[in-house]
TrEMBL record, chain B:
InterPro entries: PTS_EIIB-like_sf (IPR036095), PTS_EIIB_2 (IPR013011), PTS_EIIB_2/3 (IPR003501). Gene3D superfamilies: 3.40.50.2300. Residues 4-96 form the PTS EIIB type-2 domain. This is Galactitol PTS, EIIB. It comes from the Bacteria. GO terms for molecular function: protein-N(PI)-phosphohistidine-sugar phosphotransferase activity. The lineage of its organism: Bacteria, Bacillati, Bacillota, Bacilli, Lactobacillales. Keywords: Transferase. One of its GO terms (biological process) is phosphoenolpyruvate-dependent sugar phosphotransferase system. It comes from Loigolactobacillus bifermentans DSM 20003.
Amino acid sequence: MAEEKVKISNYLNQQMIFLDQDFKSTDELFEAVAQKAATEGFVTDSFLPKIKQRESTFPTGLQLETRGVAIPHTDADTIKKEFIAVITDKNGVPFKRMDDPDADVSAKVIFVLGLNQPHAQLEMLQTLMATIQDDALLDKVEKASKIDDIFDIL
Amino acid sequence: MKKLNVLVACGAGIATSTVVMKKVEDLFKEENIDANLIQIKIAEAASKQEDADMLISTTVLPTTYSIPSIKAMGFLTGLGVDKLKKEIVDTAHEIQSEA
């Protein structure tokens, strides 16, 4: 990963990292993230209804070899300032799978993508996908106990 | 050889399709397949399929299309990438040989 120029940490914000949570549903998770994001000026009021709707139409859970992750995101016009929120959940949040909405995946690591410039974040997105595919790295994210650790890892 | 028009779709046309665009672009370059890639939201696929030869999507396909449609989550998860690449290349060759 040393050759990657763009780091995920450039898009991280202290306020938008939620560690060791225990969300029972995607809606519960989205409500918590949306509330904080609105307070911090990252999103418009339509972010919450739109991300909920988007997730129910086109789910974003990904089943990897040994774990589940999710990358919820929604329309660019709901994002005022770009961000990536990182959520780790003790018991895993049930997401529907991107490739099979009838199947669930339990996601212990969730990246909420607040992006508003299509095409522009290719390098960051590639880094993010490489991160998702890096089992050892994701393990560190899952086990991180301090917000600063997330900045160090990503 | 026919230049292919390929739709690359995801739900919002913003995140996962951006990653897949790059992967498909690299793949076609490696395989010397001449293609024009168009990034779209999956909701636009039905109206755009008439002018396109192939659809590559990271979402479930909400309907059936008249053009070959390939699900490409493998580029995101890293699972089954070789098989996925082969499917895309084989489909491209098939379309070119029919043209």
